[in-house]
Structures are given as structure tokens and as C-alpha cells.
Amino acid sequence: MGLRVIIKGDQQIFDDIEKDIEFMNANMKAQVKAIGPEAAVKMRSIIADGKIRPQSGEPTKLENNINVEYSNDGWGVGDIEGLKKNAPHWAAINWGSDHLVGTEVYGQFSPGEAKPNPKAYGQGRLKKGPYKVKIEKPIEPKNYIEKTITFVRNQINNIRLGK
Hints:
The protein has 163 residues and is α+β, with helices and mostly antiparallel strands.
């Protein structure tokens, strides 16, 4: 035997409640949509803060390719095809990589000074150069995607809770 509930009342009250729910839903959608640009800024800052060596005026390929993409059913941060083309190291930076450990490449670390400075040892970024450099350490995972997802989830929870 099932339970049957019959509510009798003024139809206007139910219409008003339905309109309120539709308004709240539209308002929440607008608030969630507004998180998109915030998420892109957050992801760029996570990437920048996670850098081990200084950028020293070089273009920031990865950060420059973190953009918000809108669609009919929502938004996303970072176009995978664009990242593959313009910043192919995006996956190695996020999840880490050890595939080059033990290999030798030609290059040099240049901290931006004309003469090598022993005090600047370990600084600067690898550039093409005449010296053989052996890669000894793997790229440590920065988890910028996961950290951004956590940020977005927290923002959505704040919206749901009315904060």
C-alpha cells in the first residue's frame, strides 16, 4: 500500500514557487558560469607558483594557453588540442615525467648573466647550447589540473550553500 499526498491550495502559490525555483536555478547557473574565468586565473597562478626555476622574461607557453572555453552545457579550462600544439609539455608538468632521465641533450643553464656565476648554480632554465647536459631528475608532478578542480568544487559548494 502506497502513500498518497494531495495538496490543495491556490494555484498561484504553486506557480510562484515554480518561478522562484526557475529563478534560483538560472541564478545558480550564472554564478557557476562566472567561476570559469576565476578557474583559469587560479590554474595559471598554480602553474606559475610551482615553477622551480625562474622564467626570466621568456614566454609562458603553458600559462598563455590556459583559457576558458564555453559551450552550450557549460565551460572548461584549457583546450587539449591547443595545449598539445602550443605547450606539449602540459601533461608532463601536471602528472610528472621521468621519460628523459638518463638521456643527454645539448644545452646550458643560463641564469641571465653574460659570464657564468658560480653563485647562480642551479638557477636559470635549460637553453640550447654547446654543452652536453645529462638529465638526472624526473619532472615532479605539479597537479595543477587536480588543484584547479578542487578550487572549482569548493566554489560550487559555496554557491550551493549560499556563501
